[in-house]
Amino acid sequence: MKKGFTLWFTGMSGSGKSTLAELVEKELLERGLNVEILDGDVIRTNLSKGLGFSQEDRDINIRRVGFVCNLLTRNGAIAIAACISPYKAIRDENRAMIGRFVEVYCQAPIEKLIERDPKGLYKKALAGEIKGFTGIDDPYEEPEKAEIVVNTAEETIEESVQKILRTLELMGHIDASDAQTEYSEEEEEEIKKRLADLGYI
Amino acid sequence: MKKGFTLWFTGMSGSGKSTLAELVEKELLERGLNVEILDGDVIRTNLSKGLGFSQEDRDINIRRVGFVCNLLTRNGAIAIAACISPYKAIRDENRAMIGRFVEVYCQAPIEKLIERDPKGLYKKALAGEIKGFTGIDDPYEEPEKAEIVVNTAEETIEESVQKILRTLELMGHIDASDAQTEYSEEEEEEIKKRLADLGYI
Fold first, then answer.
1. How much is the pTM?
2. What is the ipTM of this complex?
3. Which domains does chain A have, with CATH numbers?
4. CA distance B78 to chain A (A)
């Protein structure tokens, strides 16, 4: 039996974390694996009601998500976290605790996110109606060594999903699938180069 | 592979929840199973810092423990909760959510608990230095249909542990062990009668 691991999606609001997390979950479930999504909203309802969005409260929230991911991971499940998690130090703290940790940085230019703005949050933040909004008046600290970077402004959703799955296969976290892949040889090379640079392969 | 389940210890402070939980965990780990203890103190550090002991805060805390037990259980692990969890409604809410839920009521006369008082908490509560202390000035609502009742004032620790393991075996949650049992035929009959009364066997 494969060991558990944590797939940690990080990125600004609207960058595609939840969408990608759900599609990856669907694919992993179809492969018969145990998967749990810990989505920012679910966690704030079930584990962190009452916490706000100050740095301190965000840190507590992300530590809690990490605590639960760790429990799932060490019991053989796949934990998928999808939280903005803007501060590098706490993400790295979770990485160190969990060990089997794969970071997916959902990257997109802020202009694009402001343009998309499905929940109208950037509009409110730019108007000063929401304070401490990541990317507007609160920092987003980019991951330096994310195992996976998806550029959701340039790639299609299918390409991003395939990139994530292929990386998990190459890292040995999941078995290789013989399903048709949605990306090019060039993209395969890019995935392999990243994993080689990080010392995985 | 066996399915996961939640073993939920409830009872007043000093009734033996954590001690029994740790011994049962040890035994289950030795049998090669995936087990996590969610102890009241661990949870209050990792998931519920900032929550107090009002009924509302206790309810939130116990719901969080239930949320995590549910995640572990449905991913095939054994979650062991050891929390006072004094209110029946919330325990039953967790039972309904989790499904594969085995309640262990750690029973002992309050006089005995006051006599033991390893942390000196009853003394403080009786002196009015701690408010809202379960069993003193806050209610403990006894389970009506606990799968297991251990009377830690009368049974030895070994007897209680064996009663718990034997019940889990009879319920089909764990495989029967051929290890020597520490209890009598009469006790075996008592376990079976309880499970039959609850409609399990």
1. 0.92
2. 0.90
3. 5-155 (3.40.50.300)
4. 9
